[in-house]
Design goal:
Blueprint (H helix, E strand, L loop, with lengths): L3 E2 L2 H11 L12 E2 L12 E2 L7 H5 L18 H9 L1 H17 L3 H13 L5 H12 L13 H10 L2 H4 E2 L1
Parallel strand pairs: 2-3
Antiparallel strand pairs: 1-4
Helix pairs in contact: 4-5, 4-7, 5-6
Length: 168
Amino acid sequence: MSRSRLEIEAWRDAVLAVSGRLDDAVGGPSEKIDAPENRRRTYYAAVSRHDLSPTLRLFDFPDPNITGASRTRTTVPLQGLVLLNDEFLVESARSLSARLRSESNDDEGRIQRAYALLFGRPATERERRIGLAYLGASEPGSAAAGDLDRWERYAQALLGTNEFTFID
């Protein structure tokens, strides 16, 4: 099978699941996918034929007004910017970081847990060393009140990796 990127629905659900934010309740009303409080599976997202969500449009969701045999697959710079700046990803990184901190008492254990959750495998020795070096480095200057701490930035970087976003 050729390598392919997860469709927006599966990717969004995976981000919610690993960060511990997924509301897996069955049934109920649909909600706007871009609403910050929406933690339901993407299957339950409201899709407007006249005003398609920018997030869905950016990640190649098909036009709901026409039928098609397959989706187009694009990779554009805006997708990368979403991984860095979108409120959904930032909150998911915070939640993933909090989950890892609650499940392990040391950085090495947290790194191993992160790799198990996100990639279904243990971290390699090289990945472990890089993670520990990053997490152990001193912060340059003073951080603003709304900034992510090191663990939250590390979690956000892992959520944005190709290994998490693509299927091999």
